[in-house]
Specification:
Blueprint lengths: L1 H17 L21 H22 L4 H17 L25
Helix pairs in contact: 2-3
Keywords: Membrane, Transmembrane, Transmembrane helix
């Protein structure tokens, strides 16, 4: 029993030293498609959702301007929908639709 336990521990140590694939401890996937989320549509969606997140807090602490805060959030959501590519989908490089890929990844 002890020999089996020690053999298993040695095997795990060897795998840990060389990595599970045998090519090193850390192997990163390389791909030319990198999306950093810096296209205008992604930035607009991020800003609109951040405003939407802070809406209840702002409305609670400044109830007299709550309607204004709701309008700002509504207009920011509408603007995020209207920025190309039109619609609710966030651009990403692995999209099935050519029109929904980020500007730098369009073929």
């Amino acid at each position: 029993w002890d020999e089996m336990r020690w053999d298993g521990m040695r095997k795990r140590e060897r795998e840990r030293e060389r990595g599970s694939s045998g090519k090193g401890f850390l192997q990163m996937a390389s791909s030319k498609k990198v999306d950093r989320g810096l296209d205008p549509k992604s930035i607009a969606i991020n800003i609109a959702t951040t405003l939407f997140f802070f809406l209840p807090i702002a409305a609670y602490f400044d109830a007299s301007n709550a309607r204004f805060y709701c309008e700002v959030v509504g207009w920011s959501m509408a603007l995020a929908l209207l920025i190309p590519p039109f619609g609710w989908l966030r651009p990403h490089p692995y999209s099935d639709f050519a029109w929904n890929k980020p500007v730098g990844h369009r073929d």
